[in-house]
Amino acid sequence: RKDIIFLTISTDRSKARATWAKDIEKYGMSVMPNLIADVENGSSFETDYCVIGLPRYIIIDRKGRIANAFAAGPDSEIIKQQIQQALTAK
Description:
Strand content: 5-15%
Number of helices: 3
Structural class: alpha+beta
Shape: globular
Helix content: 25-40%
Low-confidence stretches: none
Distance between the termini: 19 Å
């Protein structure tokens, strides 16, 4: 679907980024946007989104609002329902 975007955001510190990049390739995720929240150089992503543990799945709706701050993981059937809810919300 063109109205859904999946992306990864790494909060790995600089010494762990090479491992993250290898895993992106290993698991075939290089076809999607993969971003780095560089918390060592001022990114407030972890604070802004209250990220205290990983992995963390967040659904953001069409208007940029957080639809689900603690979404189910991609291997769960529940995630399909959560995405559908976000797509139909007004």
